[in-house]
Amino acid sequence: MAFLAEAQADTPLYLPVSFSTLLRPSRRAAYAEVLSILPHSERRRLSAAVYDVPRAPSFQALKQLHEALDEHFSAIDLRTRDPAFEIEQLNAEAVTSVTLVLPQAEPERRLIVLRRFISKIDAYKRRRIWPAVTNVRHPRELDLALEAHLPFITGPAVCRLQPRPMGGRSWPVDQLPVPSPAEALHRASA
Which pTM value belongs to this model? Predict the structure, then answer.
């Protein structure tokens, strides 16, 4: 709560929410209790980052998710590790965004996963749901995400770890706070 009071008024803040835990009735009640302390005046800048979302969340699961979160958050982001997330099964504007969490894997495997996710970008556009990618670690991943015009890209290849939350910001590609090419190569080989 102190962060909410101290942070810039326009800084978006993503709070992590477990998909499977939220769907259990007993845990949903615990979430409701915790969420009730969030100031309603801050709802416009609070977003729920729902993690460990399966490939095809059911309509009923999404309904329960909305019932639990809509009152407290202005946006719901589904975070999945599955590049074949079934975006076609979601209604238009069912959530704000779907974020692919790139796996901890070899660079070539990570690129394959990212390409598979990007291959469905038109389905995201038709449903008016923002596609995003996180855990971008290598320059080639960043280049591929930029070429695909993904609107939200995060990870060490985009911005170094910071001592304090920085909030979302838009930057021209050539001004991103990324490591120099020599630093990036050194990190990739480490």
Answer: 0.82
Q: How far apart (Å, rounded) are the C-alpha atoms in residues 169 and 163? A: 16
Q: What is the pLDDT of residues 80-113, one digit of tens each?
A: 999 999 999 999 999 999 999 999 999 999 999 9
Domains and CATH numbers, the chain: 2-189 (3.20.20.450)
The secondary structure of 166-186 as a DSSP string is -------GGG--PPPHHHHHH
**Rounded Cα–Cα distance for residues 138 and 185 (Å):** 9
Can you tell me the distance from the alpha carbon of 171 to that of 113, in angstroms, rounded to the nearest whole number?
Answer: 25
The separation between CA 94 and the C-alpha centre of its own chain, rounded to angstroms, equals 15
pLDDT (average), residues 4-29: 79
Residues in the chain: 190
CA atoms of 103 and 151, how far apart (whole Å): 20
Rounded CA gap, 25 and 157, in Å? 39
Q: Which two tokens stand for residue 117?
A: 């996710």
The token duo for 32 is 């409701």
Q: Please count the helices (runs of H) and the strands (runs of E) in the chain.
A: 8, 6
Among 91, 152, 93, 148, which Cα is nearest to 122's?
Answer: 148
Structure token digits, residue 145:
């995400």
Q: How distant, in Å, are the alpha carbons of 11, 28, 123, 153, 184 from that of 131?
A: 20, 27, 10, 9, 25
